[in-house]
Specification:
- With 343 residues, the protein is mainly alpha-helical.
- The longest helix is centred in the C-terminal third of the chain and has 30 residues.
């Protein structure tokens, strides 16, 4: 479904990280570092901890609370300023869930049946999956449109869900005769390393859910752990090539070059110009040194914040109040448009 819609509201950027599992290098390079860059460019950012999405699979309640604080700590430690960006827990703003129900009645089963991530996550026994896992792309649409966000930093694996958001916005606007009420948000998928791969398998994304801790560099890893994981990262026996084309058939080498480039704010071409002809025995120590140098300040600040939960909670409470001040009027106007009594 496509529709030409003119939206004249303010620019707003929204994204979030799910509160499940330890944050890792992929989260930093693919999300946190990009959020900070957008903030520093003056973009109005709404950044939430996706705890509603987390419970689409069972979560230990105490662990969920701790992980919510840990993600908030990572936001702050990475350089996000709560005075400039709105940082909050998704569940603390009721408008997300309320708008999601309305959108459940706008979206169509055929649209959700095409969502490839549900098929991947549910596996061979989709009947055992929660209804929430099936419908969470609709909640994602509500997350975005409850703030009338115009841009969403996202990876390629989430692009399909953003297309669903656009379809829901267009259908709502058309069904209720309110052209331009909800915007058509655009993806922001540019970035130095939007898709960081596993250190054990260059064809698989670095993931919190991978059973092997050696597959990822966690943001809470110390310098020794980082160095050991880089040293053990899977590679091949060939030296680094001179051109990107020569990397295409070498997924592990390509991944390590991309990580170095992102951490050093260089292009992959510049990295190859520096290391072409050298083996991984020379390259890996340089990469480990760079990773430790880049992550050590973030790790130290995260640990400080995790030891001061009241400081994190103040940020989250303030952010939730500021987020609700934007989201609640959008939901109230949506309810009026739908025809709910008293709206």
């Amino acid at each position: 479904m496509t529709e030409e819609i003119t939206y004249t509201g303010p620019r707003r950027i929204l994204s979030g990280i799910q509160a499940s599992g330890a944050l890792h290098l992929g989260n930093y390079l693919g999300a946190l570092k990009r959020f900070v860059a957008l903030q520093d460019q003056g973009a109005p950012c709404f950044l939430f901890v996706a705890d509603l999405h987390a419970i689409t699979v069972w979560q230990d309640p105490a662990v969920l609370t701790a992980q919510t604080r840990e993600i908030a700590a990572a936001y702050l430690a990475s350089g996000l300023d709560p005075a400039r960006s709105v940082i909050f827990p998704q569940s603390a703003v009721r408008a997300h869930a309320e708008l999601a129900w309305i959108f459940n009645c706008v979206a169509r089963l055929g649209w959700l049946d095409r969502m490839t991530q549900f098929k991947e996550k549910s596996g061979k026994h989709k009947e055992r999956s929660s209804v929430g896992l099936y419908t969470y792309p609709v909640l994602q649409a509500a997350d975005i449109l409850v703030y009338k966000a115009t841009e969403v930093p996202t990876g390629e694996d989430q692009k399909q869900h953003l297309e669903l958001t656009r379809d829901i916005a267009a259908k709502f606007n058309t069904d209720f005769g309110v052209p331009g009420f909800f915007p058509q948000p655009e993806p922001l998928i540019q970035g130095p390393a939007p898709r960081v791969m596993s250190l054990r398998d260059g064809s698989a994304k670095m993931s919190k859910s991978d059973p092997s801790d050696q597959s990822r560099i966690n943001l809470m890893d110390d310098a020794d752990a980082i160095a050991a994981k880089v040293k053990k990262a899977r590679t091949d026996p060939e030296p680094l090539p001179e051109t990107l084309d020569a990397l295409d058939a070498r997924p592990e080498a390509k991944n390590l070059v991309a990580i170095y480039a992102a951490l050093a704010d260089l292009s992959r071409e510049q990295v190859l110009a520096q290391f072409a002809g050298q083996g991984f025995g020379a390259f890996k120590p340089k990469l480990a040194e760079l990773a430790v140098e880049s992550l050590a300040p973030i790790t130290a600040e995260m640990r400080r914040l995790m030891a001061a939960p009241d400081e994190i909670d103040r940020v989250l409470k303030d952010g939730a109040e500021r987020a609700a001040a934007i989201a609640d009027p959008v939901v109230e106007e949506t309810k009026r448009i739908v025809g709910f009594w008293g709206a």
